[in-house]
Amino acid sequence: MPDLAEPITLQPHLRRNGAATQLFVDGRPMLLTAGEVDNSSGTSRAWMAPIWEKCAQAKLNTVLAAVPWDLLEPEEGQFDFDVIDGLLEDARAHDMRLIPLWFGAWKNGLSHYCPLWVKADQRRFPRTLTRFGNLEMLSTHSTEAREADARAFAALMRRIREKDGGIHTIPMIQLENEVGLNGDVRDRHPDAEKAYNSQVPRQLVDYLVANEDNLLPETLEFWASRKREGTWADLFGDDDSAGAVFMAWSYADFLEEVAAAGRAEYPIPVFANAALAPFPGTNRVHGPHARGGPRANVMDIWRAAAPSIEMLSPDIYRPDYEATLQEFNRLDNPLFVPEARPEHEGAANAFYTFGIGGIGYSPFGVENRIADHANGPMTQAYRLIRQISDVILQHQSAGTITAARVHPDQTEQQLDFGGYHWRIARVHHWRTPKIPMRDWGYCMIMQTGPDEFLVAGTGIQIEFSKPGEERTVVGLGSVDEVDFRFGRWERRRRLSGDEIMHSYSHEELNADNQTGTMVKFWEPEPLVMRVKLYAYQK
Ligand code: DGJ
Fold first, then answer.
1. Are 464 and 479 in contact (CB under 8 A)?
2. pTM higher than 0.85
């Protein structure tokens, strides 16, 4: 991945920029306020026409849509580019970016998107064999499938280069969709069995040895034997553990060939998305779900096998959003969430993702799972993020940004940032009593000076203290609601009085190092406050 010292190209690429890795398009970093449409929507321009309008209304700047292999190559070697050409044209007409999802050999582990000439020819394209028998799922050990998928993906990328190489409507592309094996520890097709009982490839062993001091704890657990030679079982233990590493290698190795063939035609970023274990806390368990997919516990294996895939991206539908995203925030993996929830939870997730340096957020099924495209919570959040995206990008790069979310299971978050302790809780009531309170609150915090911060968010209230200083009280120097206009912050309102007070019980408050004031996000729409703090001895 290039860093800033290297010349900037206009072509989309991922680049280390100070403290963050950002997506550069046309020579500038950008944030993807994205959304994914339902699986079949992108196959019809007529069907998509009203959906583009909804996406534009909802302030998306990027749409993720599937490009199925069976429509791209209905007969072997005969390509039909209608789907990608139509999506490109319509994205441009709506001033939006497009991220194609290559639904090739696998979609959610299965092979339903393969053309019939692939599906029906099991001799040429062998399937995964599990303890349930032969499933509608190509084997990762099918050489012909790998070559056919790579040829089709290369043809798609060639088309994208021809149509978009100078325009950059497409900033990056997803390879396959949620690959992984369900229901068994590994593929039992004879070719897969043969590979499983053979020597672990040199490429993987060399990676483990070269990175021994920086391997993830999960990798060290898998490789408890520390052996450098032998079969998968010799190096990685029992069937469950060795099977998990074997399947991860098998998928990643297949996808690497496909990604490399595509990038040889047009080298924009390629990412793979991960289906996660459905319940919090089970992400590291090997389990029977999407085995071998690009999950957090096998990131090292994917890195070793698939250098052409620059990003491993979690689809997060689980409630432990922060912990899950942080698991992917390792090994310098750029953060992009291709599928997640919309509405209030989605707004909070988006703020959190950008606030910890992410490049994009994308709720799934945006046409049907958003109630109010014109002014719902996702739209309000995206509108604000887009207004201040240059500021967010600068703070990501400077490492002066953080974020927090509060919700029914965690009504308060505490963090140390910029020399202060922040106690962030759900706001107790709105200023407008007629609007019902909701469960979610969130903020992004950016430090602009020694005691100065921009806080963007809604639904929260914040109290401050000085970590480790017993007699120090932190007061609000000033609190302004601000707007970012023409590159400058302008004051909308100065907030004081009732807008910052919550208690006049000075005796108790002083004993607790509190002033009775707090920064209150009292309006139901997200907005930005400029907060200056100061400290005094009590
Ligand atoms: C996850 C898949 O990746 C999507 O394509 C879609 O099928 C959703 N699940 C459905 O909720």
1. no
2. yes
